[in-house]
Amino acid sequence: MSSPASTPSRRRGKRGRESNPPTPQDARSPPSQKPRTDDSTSTGDLQPMPTSPPAEAQSPRAPDALFSSPPQFRHAAIPLDFDVSSPLTYGTPSSRVESTPRSGVRGTPVRQRPDLGSVRKARQVDLHSDGVAEDVVETEQSLGQRLVIWGTDVNVASCKEKFQRFLQCFIDPLAKEDEDIGLDLNQPRYMQRLEEINMVGEPFLNVNCDHLRSFDENLYRQLVCYPQEVIPTFDMAANEIFFDRYPDSILEHQIQVRPYNALKTRNMRNLNPEDIDQLITISGMVIRSSQLIPEMQEAFFKCQVCAFTTRVEIDRGRIAEPSVCKNCNTTHSMVLIHNRSMFSDKQMIKLQESPEDMPAGQTPHTVALFAHNDLVDKVQPGDRVNVTGIYRAVPIRVNPRVSTVKSVYKTHIDVIHYRKTDSKRLHGVDEETEQKMFTEERVELLKELSKKADIYERLSSALAPSIYEHEDIKKGILLQLFGGSRKDFTHTGRGNFRAEINILLCGDPGTSKSQLLQYVYNLVPRGQYTSGRGSSAVGLTAYVMKDPETRQLVLQTGALVLSDNGICCIDEFDKMNESTRSVLHEVMEQQTLSIAKAGIICQLNARTSILAAANPIESQWNPKKTTIENIQLPHTLLSRFDLIFLMLDPRDEAYDRRLARHLISLYYQSEEKMEEEYMDMAILRDYIAYARSYISPRLSEEASQTLIEAYVDMRKIGSGRGMVSAYPRQLESLIRLAEAHAKVRFSEKVGTIDVEEAKRLHREALKQSATDPRTGIVDISILTTGMSATARKRKEELAQALRKLIQSKGKTPALKYQQLFDDLRAQSDTAITKEMFEEALRALADDDFLTVTGKTVRLL
Amino acid sequence: MPCVADWLNNPFSIVQGIFAQNVPNSDWEKKVTEYFREKLKENNATNWVPSLNDVPVHYLKPNSLVKFRCMVQDMFDPEFYMGVYETVDPNTNTRVLHFGKYRDVAECGPQQEIDLNSSQTVTSERQTFYCVPVPGESAWVKEISFFTELVLFVLNPQFYGYISASQARVSPSTSYTPSRHKRSYEEDEDMDLHPSKQKEQHLGNSGGGDIHGCVEPKRLETEASAGHHLISPNCSPPLDLNFPLPGEKGPACLVKVYESWDSFKVNDVLEVYGILSVDPVLSIVNSDERDSSTLDPVESMDTAEEQRVHSPPASLVPRIHVILAQKLQHINPLLPACLNEEESKTCEFVSNFMSELSPVRAELLGFLTHALLGDSLAAEYLILHLISTVYARRDVLPLGKFTVNLSGCPRNSIFTEHVYRIIQQLVPASYRLQMTIENMNHSRFIPRKDYAANRLVSGVLQLASNTSLVVDETQLEQGQLDTTGVHNVTALGNLITWQKVDYDFNYHQMEFPCNINVLITSEGRSLLPSDCQVHLQPQIIPPNMEEYMNSLLKAVLPSVLNKFRIYLSLLRLLDYSISDEVTKAVEEDFVEMRKNDPESITADDLHRTLLVARFLSLSAGQTTLSRERWLRAKQLEALRKARLQQQKCVNGNEL
């Protein structure tokens, strides 16, 4: 790493003075002040300076040429119209050099890499000029071939050789990336890539820096510190191998190496002057992209007098217009010919740091990116990307004609590689690569935590500590946060099994349901919070919009799609209108959303857990009624919730006492003390993220046995009374809960304890929500069919009684409604409400026994 | 004081001196801050530094030391600058080292050139904040801080002489005497456009003897300079200075921070001491860049809007290069700026004030009772509200917020306006939000990121901590809220419930916690959530409200008014605890209450009663809860609830 002091000077050394017109003194100024990482070169690199072509002093471009541009006259093909002694030769773009004799890259043009620096040119591969590469300054020959690129410690030959070895040998031991599809993991990875290039014809080789690091730490360091020098060397190496192997391959231009994933993915906030001119990878969100800017790379001039033509390369955004024609010596006769000049595409992009990286209370930082050539228009505003590129800083001149300089630099990044982080959100690739990185210490800490015996209790008490008690509810939510394991049965035709756990909280108003929802929403990275009252079906799902500018149809996603792989918190679930709620049916079981609108028919993934809160229809929970009666939600929807909890205001003294103590403590404890007491929200978040992305437990043998037993037991309870008391859905819920509990322990196997806890929690939730208020028996059918078994039995009995009553009246074609009701009431020993009576009538009507018209009942 | 002029007038010479002495090593930077910190510690030294809040920019000498009391409105990207650079004289080939810190432009002599390749160059990083004067800052705050300065000008003849000599006409007798204040024609004209400004004007004229709009001269000056800017040729439309509240005036400032900028947050109130930079070159940059942009592709990467926002003309938005910056706990000039307990002076101040606390409280209660038309219960709750502050957050739950809904306010009367005026006289920063359909639909509440200009466009809800926001719901008529209106009402609701505002970043939202005291005046129960509703029961109905309120304000002695102000600001900063015994007692009490009436006593009631008890204790200067206070809190709550019950009965289906 070079010190910050040295970076600007090093940059300017290589790319030429940005603004100062070079003075003779400048040109001669010894580069000895530049840092040398390699001591042996410190004297050596002074040598070439005096020997450089004498033309340099006259030419403003000379220092550049010396430091960076390949003097092309080494190669055979020099256009005749070139004056060899002219300094302009230094800048001759290599692309015009027809071919290098005996080189394998014959016929494939080199493409300029503006991403590596505006003045630099990619080098030709020259198999015979090993070590005499243009930028290389020779050092003490006697000490062996220590050739390094000026200003660095990079030896081109060894660097090239190392990289070639890397390409030829590297086998990724932990290949797991999603882009590996179709690669043989036991073969050298990048050779297969080259083969792919040969077949596809896309001359870009993406190299994961992580691989490079595991292969050769030093090479990797050089790449990061001197990307401007090392990447062309890599290009050279890759091309040599490629054209060695596939000499007949026809590519648009030579292969360009694009490294990505440099060091750690850095936060924009950590960028500092030390990173200037280094290879960095940062993540962020694209907020704006400019129009395409054609940037002139090379100007074409023609003399109007003698038609002599010449090319001038762009130098820091300026063209040095030749004032004298070299052929006929006429002054000011050269004219720019636009359509013979060369341009490259360029685009300015503003990247903003991702919201997750931002410290609270500060506004996000932005950084400018320059994309070149085919990276232009690769990203759109709103995309989340990881960008690899070279960080640049350029001084700003106050005025081109005045020597004062603003003491501020402009910074930007020249993009080398983009990687979209959420491009797959709308497609269905299952293994979403979590971008969340954990440091080793963090992982250690988390693993340490997971070994604690009471980790489950610990985590659940860390959840929303300001909300008092409701331990089981918190545990349920905790399991929801972890989720089950994802299973894929597509090949057997059942598709995905839902791994997400859905929870419904219902209960009295003012029992901090909303607060719990808010907490969860704040905790998970992909949470969405909506209120049932305010959301429409469209807002939840997705809608199609016509872009006013392009007239293109655009799919805008709603809350449910946005919380794919997250949790969607829906408050006031009961206030939601019917059509909106119906959308949830699909989401909650199939985990997809189907859209058929305005020419777009698609299925979006919505693998979201739903945490909903509902208030009872009467403002207070009526303990005499069932859950369904209290919240008036269709049982079809309710049965899709794994756990339904009641949050009631318990009326007992001990609870009140504890609550009071808890609240008072809120009001006088200082903030620090609170933090000590509970687990940090950040740790909790990391713990969950780690478990979600790395742990996917499977059922063990004994766990399956326990599950089977549990299910059979549940079925048995009901069968005694002639009713179904458990459905496969309940079994699935149990499995999910058990898996989630195993995840809490960081265990890859679901054990019996997990199943036991799942059973317990499931039972607790049922006890609260599915207890038949009339009999006090837990009855699952309340939730699955909307009515308890006893209620149904009672209904039938009543209908039978009514039928008997009517039949006992003999053959009367019509009966008075009120009369019948009174008779039935008189006959029955239990209280009969009007509703019950009507229900019984309806049941009989369904049997085609009678019809009800107005106030009369007719027999059929 | 011989050196006073030097470090105030020409801080660069000091920095240069220190720089020259220590040049090879980098600790010269530390020494510079150390030097100025020491200088400012000397008694009253801070008052000698002219403040950008009071003195118009063009009266201040460029490159002199200034101070500025401001709120961070936006944070720009960090910038890299030349910390140290070298210049070369091409003729003599002499090399000189310079420092780039505290400068916008790398200076060099006429015959010199900057050597951009020098190995001595050090690149450093600094952060730019866009700062505006504290939004809604009360007139009295500006005035008092200005007068303390004025007194010092006069007390220090040497300094005074220096000031008047070097800075044109800055003297108390010419431009700054309050007597100079006259409404200009221009102001009269645009008063109709800015009702809030008119209000301020009212205050200036009618509110008490010593209240004169001292802000006025400055305001005129800023306007003048803005106007000047307008006239200048080929200039684009006037720059929006991005003040959160409509009708605000004052200098916005680009504050360049060199150290620990991570510790500052958006909406923090800062007092910065730094070097003023109004180099006209900075403005030239703007006009010139447009021509040269075709030449230099690097500079064209920002859009024109962005350039306008990020490098506005220095005459309009001066730059301050910060030497020292501190976060302010409060902006009340009557209190020592920093209330830490080590300093004996502040200790003394606090204990002195505490000794006379109860008479002040009694007087304040009386004053507010009169203001609330004789309703002492409402006045009591108003005091509690005014000293409330969010002192902690338990995960998402803010603790210590106490939003009061003052219901039963007469409709369409100037009563609410007068209540606001009284609050304005008491708290350092406040804003009255008129909740009309028009206002809700058309004003910008939530700050929004403008990506084209790359800045945070401010909104009404971007306020500093402890600002009093008075929401006047009596103005609300029936009508249709559009999308903006619904968003605004939701944002207001979120602000009250969670004490946070979700700023709109177009692609996502970001939560900014805040600490704003919201008082809602309404006829019936407010449609906004609130922590506690107090129904007003006027005892007196003055025939002429205007007169009544004016005479009320006139009757308060300025010294008493100042005591009120200290009282409210100071108590907010006190610590508080509850002893174990009282915890037990409260616990018992709660259990008992629940036993008797489980339906009506809920956890929420306990929450509220604990809050009332907290503020009640603090308002009496007690930092622990005593049994008596607890009982008193319960009593107050009972009274308040009884009123609501009564109201319910009267209105039948109300509530």
Automatic annotation (TrEMBL), chain A:
Keywords assigned: ATP-binding, Cell cycle, DNA replication, DNA-binding, Helicase, Hydrolase, Nucleotide-binding, Nucleus
Localization terms from the record: Nucleus
Reactions mediated catalytically: ATP + H2O = ADP + phosphate + H(+)
Top-tier EC class: hydrolase
InterPro entries (alphabetical): AAA+_ATPase (IPR003593), MCM (IPR031327), MCM_4 (IPR008047), MCM_CS (IPR018525), MCM_dom (IPR001208), MCM_lid (IPR041562), MCM_N (IPR027925), MCM_OB (IPR033762)
Domain MCM C-terminal AAA(+) ATPase: 455-663
Region of interest (Disordered), ranges: 1-70, 91-124
GO biological process: DNA strand elongation involved in DNA replication; double-strand break repair via break-induced replication; mitotic DNA replication initiation
GO cellular component annotations of the record: MCM complex; nucleus
Gene Ontology molecular function terms on file: ATP binding; hydrolase activity; single-stranded DNA binding; single-stranded DNA helicase activity
Biased composition (Polar residues): 91-102
Predominant cellular place of this UniProt entry's protein: nucleus
Pfam families, alphabetized: MCM, MCM_lid, MCM_N, MCM_OB, WHD_MCM4
Gene3D superfamilies for this protein: 2.20.28.10, mini-chromosome maintenance (MCM) complex, chain A, domain 1 (3.30.1640.10), Nucleic acid-binding proteins (2.40.50.140), P-loop containing nucleotide triphosphate hydrolases (3.40.50.300)
EC numbers on record: 3.6.4.12
Stated role: Acts as a component of the MCM2-7 complex (MCM complex) which is the replicative helicase essential for 'once per cell cycle' DNA replication initiation and elongation in eukaryotic cells. Core component of CDC45-MCM-GINS (CMG) helicase, the molecular machine that unwinds template DNA during replication, and around which the replisome is built.
Homology family: Belongs to the MCM family.
Subunit structure: Component of the MCM2-7 complex.
Record protein name field: DNA replication licensing factor MCM4
Species: Pampusana beccarii (Western bronze ground-dove)
TrEMBL record, chain B:
Compartments, as annotated in UniProt: Nucleus
Compositionally biased intervals (Basic and acidic residues): 192-202
GO molecular function: chromatin binding
Xref: Pfam families: MCM_bind
Residues covered by region (Disordered): 171-214, 289-312
Any GO CC annotation of this UniProt entry: nucleus
A single BP term in Gene Ontology: DNA-templated DNA replication
Keywords in alphabetical order: Nucleus
Predominant place of localization: nucleus
Family under the similarity heading: Belongs to the MCMBP family.
PANTHER family per UniProt: MINI-CHROMOSOME MAINTENANCE COMPLEX-BINDING PROTEIN
Protein name in the entry: Mini-chromosome maintenance complex-binding protein
Organism: Pampusana beccarii
Organism phylogeny: Eukaryota, Metazoa, Chordata, Craniata, Vertebrata
